[in-house]
Amino acid sequence: RAAHRNVLLLDAGDQYQGTVWFSRFKGREAAHFMNLLRYDAMALGNHEFDEGVSGLLDPFLKNVNFTILSANIKAKTSLANEMMKYVLPFKVVHFDSESVGIVGYTTKETSFLSQPGDDVIFEDEIEALQVQVNELTAMGVNKIIALGHSGFNVDKNIAQKVKGVDVVIGGHTNTFLYTGTPPSTEEPAGPYPFMVDSDDGRKVPVVQAYAYGKYLGYLNVTFDKKGNVLEAVGNPILLDSSVPEDEHIKEEVEKWRKNLGNYSKEIGKTSVYLNGTSQACRFQECNMGNLLCDAVLHENVGQPDKKSWNHVSMCILNGGGIRSAIDEQSTNGSITMEDLLSVLPFGGRFDLVRVKGSTLKEAFEHSVRRYGIGSGELLQVGG
């Protein structure tokens, strides 16, 4: 902001979930710190619905002082109608005599990836976006950013098919894009920005900036007077120790951290690296998946059923439900409740069910139906 004019700070969703902070504060922490950072807009991600519509409305939507966006969410109940008072399809930002439109979208898979219940419907992103982009164009806005949370492939489709969108900023697949030599361990899935040829003959930059707050995506876009993109350059900025700490934010972090003391007590030890990364558990067998399934089996085998040789013979677990690794070197082998909540943050349960072999086969077929894109269905197995 100090070095550039006309700056927008945008978030592509999924501020909910993933750490002990969310387990304790349920979204109030995200609202508080995003307000301090002075965000301009945020698109809703699927995890914003993990606590239902009420769990999004009360702790988060009612407390943020920036714009929340999604063009493809429609309300079905009075509770959802209340929620939609705080969610807009688009926002227009004015820079002197120039206007920039920001239109939001949320993955239509949210209905089964999260817990929105029957309160809302998630429509097709491209169809919903085109309606709102047409409205922005009719208002005379000729510089339009699509900001959303549907994954890199959908981002590219939006850039190609939604007429009038000039820039796409996405999330959901945690895609790392970088031009040049990357500054850390992530391997780029393509250049930053990734340029897409639109159906109406334009070059549309598409960006994502990985995950976990590790990077700040930086994109500098130059438009001509007609709103066409002349240049789009940048790269994700690695937020390592070279970035100075903000003393006020640091004080606020420490103030909130005092409520997390009980989560930092040691409850176990490990002598090996427990790999719970998406790169491992969504693409292959990972030792964190093995450990979790073995723990489930151990717990259930301890409660025998006299009717069969063993009332539990195997465990299956979505690789996408495993959200973090435990590094024995950085923690001297210590495992805390905070670590466990980072690995399994969603508060789900393990169900013991009897299934036919044919049903199990269907589960494995479903597990690999989209293999290769890291979508999370790949099963971790024990037994």
Automatic annotation (TrEMBL):
Its EC number is 3.1.3.5. Keywords: Hydrolase, Metal-binding, Nucleotide-binding, Signal. GO terms for molecular function: 5'-nucleotidase activity; metal ion binding; nucleotide binding. It comes from the Eukaryota. Residues 267-383 form the 5'-Nucleotidase C-terminal domain. Residues 4-173 form the Calcineurin-like phosphoesterase domain. Belongs to the 5'-nucleotidase family. This is 5'-nucleotidase. It comes from Psophia crepitans (common trumpeter).
